[in-house]
Amino acid sequence: MIEVRNLTKDYGQRRAIESLNFKVEKGEVVGFLGPNGAGKSTTMKIITGFMAPTSGEALVCGYDVFENPMEVKKRIGYLPETPPVYGDMYVKDYLEFVAQLKLVEKHKISQFVKNAIEKTNLGPVQNRLIQNLSKGFRQRVGIAQALVSDPEVLILDEPTVGLDPKQVAEIRDLIKELRGQHTIILSTHILPEVEATCERIIIINQGKIVAQESLSNIANATKNTTRQVSFKVRRNHNELIQKLLSVTGVVRAVAGSAPGSVLVELNGSDDAVEMLASTVVQSGAGLIEMQSMAQLEDVFLKLTYGAAET
Ligand SMILES: Nc1ncnc2c1ncn2[C@@H]1O[C@H](COP(=O)(O)OP(=O)(O)OP(=O)(O)O)[C@@H](O)[C@H]1O
Ligand SMILES: [Mg+2]
Questions:
Q1: Cβ–ligand 1 contact at 106 (below 6 Å)
Q2: How far is 198 from 200, CA to CA, in rounded Å?
Q3: Alpha helices, DSSP H only, in the chain?
């Protein structure tokens, strides 16, 4: 569905991305991860035909982005880093305008606009001027314009930036809903977002791909490294910490800063975590919260910063 071959982009002397190669299959949701300046937006601008690469190719639905830009643009919905919304237009009118630009057939336009408004929960503001909306709502308008032509491919550059936690959760749900019907690439810095919505991730650092894995493979790759688990109990906090130190695999157990919280480091197979959890429950300390630190975060940090530290 999307294929990128040896994609390189130089901005003057600065090489932003170098020989990127990847494929995204139909219906896949792929997370594009990388620190600031890694080259995520640059890659997305090229795939969507907004910018030419210095060398290499990008194909969308079998069409070369630069040989057949119209065919590609018809099939792609793109949310750029800065949403392309016109402040002096009303939300609904703007979405109709975008649908026309995307060559949606006339008789389908009002239904398509309605669907995009529903999916992004813009109903209550559909008759307001875009410039008067809050930042989060403007971001939703940006997402709605990407969806409005019901495109096969969605390229979303940091779709949840500027949204409040409730809206972030809504967009996550929306992306989950779109999965299967659309092929999606989304970029983000927010790792739980990737874990919640993507099947596969591409990690990019300093313009190069440093990992392309399914999330399940990442989980396996980190199976036997140290991981951190935190939890909260209601009673017998100190006794519990002593007990945990004797659980197989636990290398450290200390009180956290919040009342009743405990941080544990253990050699990280799932078995060890299971044993830890059952010990806490059986201790009768009254478990009210338990969280295993994201493995993805470990992998991400190792790949993007770790190399410089060792
Ligand atoms: N128009 C431009 N002119 C010159 N350099 C640019 C331009 N756009 C981006 N760059 C540089 O290219 C590199 C990649 O930038 P890009 O915006 O693709 O990164 P990003 O991964 O999207 O970062 P962020 O997470 O901050 O959005 C950076 O070093 C950036 O400074
Ligand atoms: Mg960017």
A1: no
A2: 6
A3: 40-47, 69-75, 91-101, 109-119, 135-147, 165-178, 191-197, 215-221, 237-244, 270-282, 295-301, 307-309
Q: Does residue 14 have its Cβ closer than 6 Å to ligand 1? A: yes
Domains and CATH numbers, the chain: 2-219 (3.40.50.300), 222-309 (3.30.70.100)
Collapsing DSSP to helix, strand or coil, 120 comes out as: coil
- Specify the pTM: 0.79
Cα–Cα distance between 198 and 188 in angstroms, integer? 11
Q: Which of 17, 33, 41, 78 to mutate to test the pocket of ligand 1 (most atoms within 8 A of CB)?
A: 41
Name the residue with the closest Cα to ligand 1, atom 16. 39
Question: What do you get for the CA distance between the two ends of the chain, in Å?
Answer: 38
Nearest to 102 by CA among 71, 60, 139: 71
Structure tokens at 261: 């919280």
Distance 39 CA to ligand 2 centre (A): 7
Q: How confident is the model at residue 211 (pLDDT cuts 50, 70, 90)?
A: confident
Say how far apart CA 288 and CA 307 lie, in whole Å.
37
pLDDT, tens digit (0-9, with 9 covering 90-100), for 123-182: 999 999 999 998 888 989 999 999 999 999 999 999 988 788 888 888 888 888 888 889
Q: Which ligand is nearest to the CA of 37?
A: 1
Q: Please name which of 157, 163, 145, 153 lies closest in space to residue 186, comparing C-alpha atoms.
A: 157
Nearest protein Cα to ligand 1, atom 28: 37
Residue nearest to atom 6 of ligand 1 (CA): 11
- Beta-carbon contacts of 245 under 8 Å, excluding residues fewer than 6 positions away, are 253
DSSP state of 303: I
Is 82 close to ligand 1, i.e. is its CB under 6 Å away? no
Q: Which ligand is nearest to the CA of 35?
A: 1
CA distance 256 to 293: 14
